[in-house]
Amino acid sequence: MKDARILIVDDDAALLEALPEALRLRMDGASIDTSETAKEALERIQETDYDAIVTDIKMPGMDGLALLQEIQTLRPGTPTLLITGHGEHDFAVQALRGGAYDFVQKPIDPDYFVASLERAVHVRRLDRQVEKQQLALELHARVLEHVDDGVFLVDAEGLIQHWNPAAEAITGIAAEDALERRADQVLPGWSALGPTVPVAPMPGPGSTEARTLPFELDGLELWISISGVEFEDGVVYAFRNLTEERALEELKGEFVATVSHELRTPLAAIYGSAQTLLRQDLELSEENTQRLLEVIASESERLTRIASDILLASNLDAGRLLLEREAVDLGPLVREVFEEMRLNFANRGNISFELEVPDALPPLEGDGDRLRQVLINLLDNAVKYSPDGGRVELRVEPHERGVRLVVRDEGLGISHADQQRIFGKFYRVDPQQSGGVGGSGLGLYISRELVRRMAGRISVTSREGEGSTFAIELPRTVARSRDEAVPAAQTA
Ligand code: ADP
Predict the structure, then answer these.
(1) What is the model's pTM?
(2) Which among 112, 104, 4 has a CA at the least distance from the CA of 48?
(3) Which of 83, 322, 380, 453 has most Cβ atoms within 10 angstroms of its Cβ?
(4) pLDDT by residue (tens digit) across 240-268?
(5) Could you read off the pLDDT of 444-483 as tens digits, one per residue?
């Protein structure tokens, strides 16, 4: 019994000398302490967690039975053997009832004594191991309660045996609805998808790469990245929610599709016009030649606009865009933009344009060109998303902190849900709902970012089918003209 720690308590000095000697001989490597009184023994027990304690039952002062009781409170796990006098059966029974591990009768039979003591030490050690494992398990369980990854255990029978809070949070399925149930009943689609989840044979650095799979929960698509580790009793799965990342990926994909579509349309027009002009066999009238050249010019301009929007948005994101800080004479700027737009859209289904600018406006400080760009974008949208015969209004009015510029249309309008999103990067309302009008979904994102960098704010009010009103509020003096001073907005 290597390193076994044993305490012997007896008031009989001769026995206290003989017993340890005998034990040391038979229990190799055991370390044995002795005490002559129960009181002294208790002090030792307080200090040392013995593997086993042997005590005489009859001792002056506190006897063995009383000591046993004290041990039970102090070290409930320590096996205690009592030494009883010959024929003291009553005592022996009392001792066992009191929780003693065993009793040994005098004269002590060394073989029996050592065997019993060895068993006691062995039991104590097993107990300690179990305690340790239990603590480790509790610790693991506590860790699992706090990790961000969803974790669940499927046992050999296919029943879920663990379902941590993150699993609840990600899936919206409560532990009580998951535990002791089959995984394919809890996770819709598991019977098909479960077998495709990579499962590593044992935990360790070589564990497998996770796989991203879609699960449909409550009608919503949930993309999770999941992998498993096989244990004797089943498989532990860990997963995280990738739905947002996935949505972003899709958005990027959509953007690429949108942009390439947007590029293809003007390119086709340019290509077609140029090919026609190049044809030797066609006698083109001066008028037709002029028209084709105009198509080339205007479509090239559209291409340039898309390219510069993409560049501008990426510069805004990277904080690379510096805005001017200059005096802006708002009256002339607004009138100029308005006239320009009216001329541009002269051929667009008799849309009527209205302008309302007060004669006196407070002086503004900001970036005139960028403000012009924002206004053009809002007016452009107002026309784009208006039916023929619609009315587009540009109004400037003083505002408590500075000025408010309002662009109003009587067009398609924007649903409440979309009003929250249209300022997001690349966001476009479903073309089916927005009259199939083309665009990159960058205009409002850029507008909002520019206005923010002029310390202003942009907002929308709209009703579907009735029209939209975009309002820009700008302070008189723009304190911040560098975009670094404004934290970038969180947008998709
Ligand atoms: P784009 O017009 O290039 O698609 P924007 O960022 O300017 O991009 O606009 C985002 C979306 O907001 C548009 O796709 C459109 O659906 C919607 N939208 C913007 N302005 C209006 C408006 N005045 N009326 C109706 N819908 C609008």
Answers:
(1) 0.51
(2) 4
(3) 83
(4) 998 888 877 877 777 777 777 778 888 99
(5) 999 999 999 999 999 999 999 999 999 999 998 754 444 4
Q: Do 313 and 327 belong to one domain?
A: no
In a domain, 492, yes or no: no
Q: What is the CATH number of the domain that holds 190?
A: 3.30.450.20
CB 15 within 8 A of CB 27: no
Q: Is the pLDDT of residue 485 over 70?
A: no
- The Å distance, Cα 410 to ligand 1 centre, comes to 14
What residues flank ligand 1, with Cβ below 6 Å?
A: 381-382, 385, 409, 411-412, 414, 422, 427-429, 434, 439-445, 468
What is the atom index within ligand 1 of the atom nearest the CA of 439? 3
Look at the chain and report how many structural domains it folds into. 4
Indicate whether 222 and 237 sit together in one domain.
yes
Residue 445 sits in which domain range? 322-487
